[in-house]
Please model this.
Amino acid sequence: MIVVMKPDATPEQVQHVCEKVKELGLTPHVSKGVERTVIGIIGEEDKIRAKPLEVFPGVESVTPIQKPYKLASRHFKHEPTVIEMGNGATIGGKKVAVMAGPCSVEGRDMLINVAKEVHQAGALFLRGGAFKPRTSPYSFQGLGEEGLKLLREAADKEGMLVVTEVMDTRTVELVSRYADMLQIGARNMQNFDLLKEAGMSKKPVLLKRGLSATISELILSAEYLLAKGNFKVALCERGIRTFETATRNTIDINAIPVLKQETHLPVIVDPSHGTGKWEYVIPIARSAIAAGADGLMIEVHPNPEEALSDGPQSLIPKKFRRLMQEIRPIAEAVGRQV
Amino acid sequence: MIVVMKPDATPEQVQHVCEKVKELGLTPHVSKGVERTVIGIIGEEDKIRAKPLEVFPGVESVTPIQKPYKLASRHFKHEPTVIEMGNGATIGGKKVAVMAGPCSVEGRDMLINVAKEVHQAGALFLRGGAFKPRTSPYSFQGLGEEGLKLLREAADKEGMLVVTEVMDTRTVELVSRYADMLQIGARNMQNFDLLKEAGMSKKPVLLKRGLSATISELILSAEYLLAKGNFKVALCERGIRTFETATRNTIDINAIPVLKQETHLPVIVDPSHGTGKWEYVIPIARSAIAAGADGLMIEVHPNPEEALSDGPQSLIPKKFRRLMQEIRPIAEAVGRQV
Amino acid sequence: MIVVMKPDATPEQVQHVCEKVKELGLTPHVSKGVERTVIGIIGEEDKIRAKPLEVFPGVESVTPIQKPYKLASRHFKHEPTVIEMGNGATIGGKKVAVMAGPCSVEGRDMLINVAKEVHQAGALFLRGGAFKPRTSPYSFQGLGEEGLKLLREAADKEGMLVVTEVMDTRTVELVSRYADMLQIGARNMQNFDLLKEAGMSKKPVLLKRGLSATISELILSAEYLLAKGNFKVALCERGIRTFETATRNTIDINAIPVLKQETHLPVIVDPSHGTGKWEYVIPIARSAIAAGADGLMIEVHPNPEEALSDGPQSLIPKKFRRLMQEIRPIAEAVGRQV
Amino acid sequence: MIVVMKPDATPEQVQHVCEKVKELGLTPHVSKGVERTVIGIIGEEDKIRAKPLEVFPGVESVTPIQKPYKLASRHFKHEPTVIEMGNGATIGGKKVAVMAGPCSVEGRDMLINVAKEVHQAGALFLRGGAFKPRTSPYSFQGLGEEGLKLLREAADKEGMLVVTEVMDTRTVELVSRYADMLQIGARNMQNFDLLKEAGMSKKPVLLKRGLSATISELILSAEYLLAKGNFKVALCERGIRTFETATRNTIDINAIPVLKQETHLPVIVDPSHGTGKWEYVIPIARSAIAAGADGLMIEVHPNPEEALSDGPQSLIPKKFRRLMQEIRPIAEAVGRQV
Model:
């Protein structure tokens, strides 16, 4: 941690900071310049992170030099994490993990139909919402447990894995009974009680980046899961909120190489929510794989005109097959398989 | 709702949209122009909002004309809401509601001391966190129920009201036992299960705007509370996330007149979280009152050097007294009292 | 400047950085910690700012500790700058500087009429665009020199000062002939050749903050003017671009106390462009004065229905008089006059 | 254009809007609903775009239905534009256009060396700045005409094309004498006088997207060029400003498919400025090609440690060769050539 003192800071003020630092078991190094004095603090930064040195008299700024995350960090674990999902499926391995299905579970026949279509096209994970976070209280809120049962049934018929969202600490156990992977949605990325519960479950977790979450905050939310002993965590870029309105959100493709450098966790990209328009889903899926993503999450609906949510961004099964064809050579170009 | 068809849309495509509209019990009005056809949909927009008309063949864009919120809307209730808190305190009335106290409840003596200081200066609400949403799992997470007890004790000593955050559906009942007003934090603004639980409690709720929430989304989250029958809701502007880093967040002062125009709910401003630096808290507090805010939430700590959270943005009691003095003539200038 | 080395940086890499630092006449201070080595660089940071130390082998990050601006800085000049405009008008003094008038100069009679109205209400500066920066090439581009003549005539009739935008290096001289103050618009805040020309003129300059400019970048653009010897510079906050669309832009009220702390230059706020809707102009004007702004720039049009630009955000003269009445007690509350 | 009236709008107010519409030669279609009246305006929207209907009494909102750009629109010209550059090079054709070179022209030997390196690796365009837009007046401002001469010489030696930035209306002619393609930088995207001058020159133009420019605004700035008769325009995505600070800017990959759908102009991506860190340049270059970009602009410097600007984001020639190798199979996967 680097403490920069104000130009007019007194020697007593410098002394005061140094004493506090020593009290915490760290070592201050003072560098006196012409204009300013700088104090470098050597040792475990965690001990001092909670101390608001910014408010000490004479302090101008405080800059941490260590990353605030540990277990999720690439320094902590050099090898990329490969989540073994059963069924031979993995996330983070050579094979690109493809998760596909409707935004919401709407009914049995539709779901079984979609599962079959996306499985034949190459998806090993069936996605679908049983509990839906909706901006308006008047929108369809999901089928709840009934939806979970349908997901399990449809996935089992095809030998697929279920990934579905959990929104409430009280339903983590329920969702875990049906799902192979728990999804924590963008709006709940900093619902810390939910993270703790999901961390204590043994289920793999797909953690979506919040609309206005920095990459560092996303990794810190993953740290909540890892700190509870659950290391089967995949991160999901699904678009951030910017001033641009031509797309629903702005997929931050840059986050892929940044996350790959900072953490050992696999990275999934969701171009359906990221763009909000089906026309853009295929090119963004291609670009995600080219940038190094470990997988994709894609909304597929047999009849988007009748979808109860997110119709505009859903691919019909035929387009989904085209997506799978188009990402194949890209995946090969970067040493992956589809 | 206005549906604009693509320049090359066929008459059959126009017809197809119109039929769907009629099926839902609404009336389409077709206007054929030189370049494009436009379909105006008259009737209760809610019925069609869930239908993804964007994906119908030939459709270029769909624009809603009605607001998605109802109960929170100024059209629904013209008179501004005044929340009666007991003790003669109100939120939304002539008197500016001032909520002050430490970021976190850290201990008994400190809290009793702060409560006394801020009460003498004019604050009727004691704020303080017992459950703390922290970005890192390694930061202080709050004292939990012990913190709630201390808040109640300190407030009772002074005849103050307690406002404190609830983060988890499972603790709504517990927090309600001690608090006079439940705070839903920025990170939980779209934790819809929590909103539903808070809506079902009878407690007044202070709903903070999410870091990347639009004003419309904030009102829709309030709508979740109102739709459960709880109309004692105050909205809190606490800064949004923008590219600017000179302040921790960017207080959106514009939101005050916008919210006043769109809803009947009172508006509180939190300049401590909004700016992240105590130096800016007083001028922003003045500007909030000048813009028409109904109240302020201010972090006060007797010794920010030792604060367990948010030290840099906390005022010492002496500065808080100055804040109260400085907002008084501003409040009078806009027809309010402090 | 603080250089943090990577955990696996070699002693040779540390040495290499230190040598480069010494070569430039500065002194490196090396602090070796358990995890990392940190190099503090003491001396004039400017010398090394241009050196991309980030790319030196073994370097993880580089953090400047000095501000990049000098002449505009409060460290350089403690006393606030007061621009003497002639006619007894000042910017940055006790009296709030009010600039008002139409968005564009549209015709003689209208302009003379508006000038009279706003002057009677208390504005000493007449604003109006003769050269208009328009997003679309098909929008009204301004009357050019004819517009400048009309501005001069209308202002002279009332004994007012003219502030008007200059967009092109080639017209700085022309605009200077008619105007008392040159305005550099938000889109040109980083048109560096224009800044240099305006810096070389002797005219006071009103520099508007770019839509996505940080406060630091705004001050650096002012530094371009000051570095050419022109110290008569006022900064203008006019709203930044964020995700919020309820207002045209988001006025960054926080920028007022930040700019006041960082620089000695006066700060003007433009609530008309900042909000984009006349309904919000008055409350935001009040909040700007309450936060410590030195002046306001307000669009006034006698008949917004017929305005050639920015009609929706223009006040009619009657509303402008109300604005002046409402800011008066606020100004007094903060020790200013209107 | 769609005009939505307020719930309490009077028949006279509806009438007043209709009359104004007819006066302008357009046809209003009135749809009366239970809650609101909507007026659809049929005809050339341009005629009415300048009229501030928002301020007419009783009007709640105004929504345009036609795009504000014409010549740049895909509706106006269905075929993608292919810019013939001479030397057999094109932009927008099957072959990916690669522009590479140093950020600034710093000296003769370095430039000749870089040109040779990037040409051998496959770049046909030499980039380099002679006039540099720098945030601080104290940074290196470029070599000016001397730099242009060096660029021409180095490019001619290799049979390459020169693309370089023009910042000032007064130097458009000078830069045109040396360059094959004029670059208009992000900070000047809305320097409308510069756009007009560049539009009047016969040179191809590379127009970079502003840091906070919407896609629609970028296209409108291109429209300024096209409206002056210059159709040889390529658009460049180089990152937008968001809250994320892990990268210098946020490359908006989504803009590629959006621009491809909205306009016929070729799209170039600049991952060097977009990310600000050389480590991320190669993955983002791959993703840009995968998403459908027509070309890349890459900063290459033989010795980034000594670069006078943008060292941290420059590739050394060896890394640039690797970039070219890595994009080749991606380009083939999307039907292009490198």
